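Bench notes, afternoon.
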Amino acid sequence: MHLDWQQALVNVILLWVLTAPHEFAHAWVATRLGDNLPRAQGRLTLNPLAHVDWLGTAILPFVTSLLGGGFLGWGKPVMTQTARLRGGLNGLALVSLAGPAMNVALAVILAVLAVATAHVLPAFSAFAEHGVLLSLYLALFNMIPVPPLDGSKLLLAARIPMAIYQELARAGFLVLVVLLSATRVGLYLNEWAYLGARAIFAGLR
């Protein structure tokens, strides 16, 4: 097995760069919908240290990148109070979608930077280009409907029984590990991220 230590380190650095806007988007939308808990907990900021989950933002992404086949990582979840959100569970769905939507926006921004610096700063351009792929991967990964990922909140918005959600949450971490290590889900996410990145760059060149 080939272990790409450099690529694993780059992935973790990029994850830190991409996590802060992702979690900020959750906090911003929640605040706009009437829930001030994210602001009170210091999450309405772009400071990466406010959004780091050391297991999900450092250890696991490094190990899974090193082993290949998939990328398992997340930031510190933004806490929300559904009862205070305008729209209730529908508002929760908007808060959940804000993070992946921010990743798509970041992918476009990074693609613009990659194209603009391709000839003058090739090393940075390559870094940004990889960021496009990773940002799209994270958008797709976070839509998997398994806690603690954003997609799981859509299950609540769809009104699945809370008892079922809680049981899924208890096994969430194990489910994600199995999905990425024993199935082709990670490879599919990589492929879809690549196709998305190719479409973005095709529109810029």
